[in-house]
Every structure is written in structure tokens, then in C-alpha cells.
Model the fold of this input.
Amino acid sequence: MLGAVLATILFSFSAVSGARVAKLMGGTEANFWRLCLATLFLAAMAHAFGAGLAGNGFYIFILSGCIGFGLGDVSLFQAYPRLGSRLTILIVHCLAAPFAGLVEWLWLGTTLSAAQMLCGAVILAGVAVALAPTHETHEQRRQFGIGIFFAVLGAIGQGGGVVLSRKAYELCRLADQPMDGITAAYQRIIGGVIISGLALLVVKRQFLLARAEAVASPGDMSTAEKWRRSGKWIVFNALAGPTLGVSCYQWALKTTPSAVVLPIVALSPLVVMPFARWLEQEQPSRRSTIGAVIAVAGAVALALAK
Done:
């Protein structure tokens, strides 16, 4: 129970700080550096107190990280500056659960009950209410739509990563190999750093090509200036999200039934709201708040549905 509560709070801190870092440094670059820092933190803990790189589930954990930390977080950090932390985390946390259920049904043969499908429909309805467009200009609508696309892609990455992690845990269990949450998070994040690094190379290449054809704008910042403005937020985000948050989440799933853990973690979109209001000066509308409550209620009900 304690692990689930800590994970929920840490994920909320990570969402708000991640949104700030993405605006200051750029989503792809910010995600890469925070994953690099988190890898160092997790490596130190996993090799000192855990199993390091051992275990039959190692390669599955790597693949899980490529999809979850890689595809999921790269998309997440593209959605943050366009939607803000509140709406981004709402979409990701609430859509990841039904997507993971669909993948399990198609891949592992896990059937979905009528109650679970109904809960999935409630989630989608809540997200639709919260995200009903209110923007007026064409450019704002365009950025809003791009943000929704990346947030949904982030949910797909997170849901797929969870299913693969469950498979990796199963392989370790069948081989009678102990696997702690820190070690699992460490092995997963290796794959995430690889995908994030490749994404950064692509973005940097496009930036250099564009810069060769045009004069840099006065608003362009050097790497040193980016780190001066956002360095402390990157360190904080690396600790709160991929290091401590994911470790607590894995710890909770290892020691507590998922029917208890998932409803607690599904509350993250609501926990984010006061932090987003404090750090981003974001004032959620009544409609978006109602939609968020509906979506989170659907996620909680889905986790509890038998």
C-alpha cells in the first residue's frame, strides 16, 4: 500500500516537473537527459543492492523499456508542452489501462468481461469530456491535436511496457529468480535510453539541417543556457519519475495485489491538478475537471473489475 501511495505522489511530481523541463529544453532532449540521470541512479542501486543485469527476464525488460520508457516517454514529453501536465497525465494514465487489457487479450489470451469493457467506455467518455476543444485559433487547435496524438501514443507505450514487464516477471518466477523493483526499473530503463537517444539524434539532425538553411532566431538558446535554466528540474524529474516513482510502483506490484495498487495509481491525474495549478498557473475548467473525475473513476473501476 505504501509503495502505491508513494508512486502516485512521485508520478504527479514527475508530470509537473516534466512539463516545465519540456518547455525550457525541448521535449526530446529533456527526456533523454532525465533518463540518462535516472539510469545512473538506478544502476548504482541495482548493482549495490539488487540483481544488476541478471535474470531470465533481462531481454524482455529491455524490450519493455524500449516501448514504455522509449516510445512512451518520448511521446509524453512531446505532449507536455502542448497540453500541460494535467491533460497529458490524464490521457496517459487512463488510456494505458484499457490498451494493456486489449494487448493481453490479443497476445496472452486474457479475456475481458462485460464490466471491464463498460469501464473502458467510461474512461474514453471522461477523456472526451475533459478534452472537448475550446481553442479558437487554427494554430492552437493544431497544437492541441498534436498534443493529443502524442499523449495517446504515450499511453500505448506505457500499456505495452506494462504487459511486457509482466511477461518478464513471469519468466523470472518460473526460473525461481528473485527480482526486485529497483532491478526491474534499471533493466527497463536501459532500453528507454537507447530509444530516447536515437530520437534525440534524429531531432538534432533535423535542427542542424534547418539551421544551415536559415539564420538562428534570437530566441534560440545554447546548451549551456538550457542547462542553467532547467538543470535542477531535470535532476528532480529523473529522481521523482523513472528512478523513485517506477521503483515504488514495481515494489507495490511485487508486494500488493494489483487490484489494490492500480486504483491508487490511477488517482495520479487528480493529484496532478493542485501541482499544475501551483507551478503552471493552470486553471482547469469545470468541464475538464468533471471529465477527469469520470475518467479516473472508470480507471479505478476497471482495475477493480473481476
Notes: The chain has a mean pLDDT of 80. The chain has ten helices and no strands. The two ends are 20 Å apart (CA to CA).
